[in-house]
Each structure stands twice: as C-alpha cells, then as structure tokens.
Specification:
alpha/beta; Rossmann fold; 7 helices
Length: about 220
C-alpha cells in the first residue's frame, strides 16, 4: 500500500470517527490541501517543521472536529493562519461561505493559492487585522483556533456578531482562567471536550454568544 493510500484510509477513518459524511471529491481536496501545506511550509513557514508529519490529526481532523456545532450560514475565521480551521471546513461544507482573515500576507497568499488550485468558490481570504476590518456584515459563526485569549476574541468580533451568532473558540486545556475573565456581556453556551482521532492531546471547544453585541 502506498503512503497516499494509507493517508486516505486514515483520513476516511478519522472522518467516520468524527461522525462526518464527506464525499470522495472533498476527501481528495483535503488530501490535496495537506500536500500543498507541506509543499509551501518549507518556504512560507506556515506550520512548525516538527508538526509537518502530524498534519492529519493536529490540523485537519482537529479543524473538522468542530463541524457538528456549526450553525447554517456564513463563517468568519479569525487569525486563520494557513487556513485552519477555515479551509478544511470550507472543503467539507461547500454550502457555507467562509471568510478567513489573517495579518500575515504570506498566509493569505497561500489560502488564495489553495482556493484557486482546488476551485473553492465558497472562500474569501482577507489580509489584515480583525480590529481593522471595515467590511460590514454579520456572520452566523465566528471561529478562532490560535488567535488570542477569549476576552480579546469576543471584543474583536463584536462588530460582526448579533444575538444569533455563535462564537466558537478552539482551546487546548480547559481554559478556566480565560472563562473567568470573560466580559459580563458574553453568554457562555457550553464548553465541549473534543476527541480528535489520532491526537493524544487535550482539546476543548468554547461556544459563546453575545446577546447584546454593541451594548455593555
């Protein structure tokens, strides 16, 4: 069995364990995204060298582990980096318009390249800081994976949320201190402990909403 076949079988098994039904074409795109991430990381330093052999579990399946909690509609991925979790989610959810913003130009160039290569019509990469984002619009979901503290996250995304928006922040260990520091105007919906196939690390998903986003 070739390494490509082995990787595909492992990916299919991981998706099944996450309870995700993903068509064959989307699995092809996930594998192609991983190949591009490895190819570009040498020059663009998209992910740490020590993590390049663990892309499937640590990045792709980890990103997709939050899919069951997404609401229908649009998604804003803040501090998307190399497109995580935005790109894997866009691949498996072609019905969802995914906007990804990052302050590093090289990472946005990579996301655009992936979009062109895989012909992803549902992504919108933006170069800049979320605090300086001037585009109007309210999103159904706002995600962060390696952006900042929960307090900084909710403050930064307030202009892009209404009372129906779900905020999904991906964390490692249970973020007890960050939860205690959340502003009073933030509603904590739930903290889910995530089980990511092949990943032997603690992962949590913090889900929040802003009942009155522009009022204290």
């Amino acid at each position: 069995m070739s390494s490509n076949q082995s990787e595909r079988i492992k990916l299919e098994s991981g998706l099944d364990r996450l309870g995700l039904e993903v068509p064959s074409a989307a699995i092809d795109d996930l594998l192609a995204y991983m190949a591009l991430l490895k190819e570009w990381s040498g020059t663009y330093d998209l992910i740490a060298p020590r993590e390049r052999d663990f892309l499937l579990a640590r990045h792709v399946l980890d990103s997709l582990s939050i899919a069951p909690w997404l609401q229908p509609g649009s998604l804003l991925d803040v501090g998307s980096g190399a497109g995580l979790p935005g790109l894997p989610l866009a691949i498996v959810r072609p019905d969802m318009q995914v906007t990804m913003i990052d302050s590093a130009g090289k990472k946005i160039r990579f996301i655009r390249h992936v979009g062109r290569t895989l012909k992803l019509a549902n992504i919108r990469p933006l170069h800049g800081r979320i605090e300086e984002m001037t585009e109007d619009g309210i999103f159904a979901n706002i995600t962060s994976r390696a952006f900042a503290s929960l307090q900084a996250f909710v403050a930064a995304v307030r202009p892009f949320a209404d009372e129906t928006t779900r905020l999904l922040a991906m964390k490692g260990a249970y973020p007890e201190k960050e939860l205690a520091d959340l502003p009073a105007w933030t509603h904590l919906e739930a903290v889910e402990k995530l089980t990511v196939p092949y990943l032997h690390a603690e992962r949590h998903l913090v889900m929040m909403s802003l009942p009155n986003p522009l009022n204290e």
